[in-house]
Amino acid sequence: MLVRKYCAFVSSTFPWVWGCCLTWWVDRLLVEMGHRSTSAPLCNHSQLQYVSMHCYATAMAVVGQSVYSFVGRRKQFHRESILLGIRQPCIVHLGLCQIGICILWSIVVACLIDVSPWLCYGFILEHRATIALVAIKMVLVMVVVEQKLYEWTLKRAVMVETFEI
User: Fold this and answer.
1) What is the pLDDT of residues 109-155, one digit of tens each?
2) Does residue 15 have a cis bond before it (omega within 30 degrees)?
3) What is the C-alpha to C-alpha distance for residues 140 and 86, in angstroms, rounded to an integer?
4) Spacing of C-alpha 56 from chain mean position
5) For residues 122-137, b (16+ Cβ closer than 10 Å) or e, as one string?
6) What is the pLDDT of residue 31?
7) Is there a contact between 158 and 110 (Cβ–Cβ < 8 Å)?
8) What pLDDT was estimated at residue 30?
9) Is the separation of the CB atoms in 119 and 46 below 8 Å?
10) pTM reported for the whole predicted model
11) Res. 39: pLDDT tops 50
12) Which member of 14, 55, 70, 71 lies 3.0 to 4.6 Å from 98 by CB, making a disulfide possible if both were Cys?
């Protein structure tokens, strides 16, 4: 399945994280057009006006995206369980993997997009390539682990169902 369709980038970032990135660009556009108030805190790298607000909004978007992504994956699992004629087993471990994948892709986006408010923090700015590389490697591992757990959960539910009959 092409490693869950390109490492689950779109399903783990759209629409919440992409909407957050759009607000970063709009803020940067407003700064470039001269709509900055002189009392706004400055960030030497990206010149975003409301760095803390953007960081909180990003964290909330990641939470929203994690829930959105897990609900979609749960619906997909439920459809497959109906086709197989089995009861819905516990899939909390799949939810945790989805949350991990969403967080890791958000880290990659926050480190690599130049208008990210997270680049106003010195540590992230100085180590952004390393942070992004580690997050991408972890995404690759998490996507494979999540796929294997998904298949294992379906197989386990089918085996339990056949033993009960």
Assistant:
1) 999 998 888 988 889 999 999 999 999 999 999 999 999 999 999 99
2) yes
3) 30
4) 15
5) eebbeebeebbeebbe
6) 77
7) no
8) 81
9) yes
10) 0.87
11) no
12) 70
Average pLDDT, the chain: 86
User: Whose CA is closest to 134, among 115, 107, 110, 114?
Assistant: 107
**73's tokens:** 């994956």
- The full DSSP string for 2-43 is HHHHHHTHHHHHTTHHHHHHHHHHHHHHHHHTT---TTSPP-
Q: Which is more confident, 165 or 34?
A: 34
CA dihedral 71, 14, 11, 92 (to 10 degrees): -30
The residue ranges of every structural domain in the chain are 2-164
Contact indicator for 94, 145 with CB cutoff of 8 Å: no
How many angstroms separate the first and last alpha carbons of the chain? 32
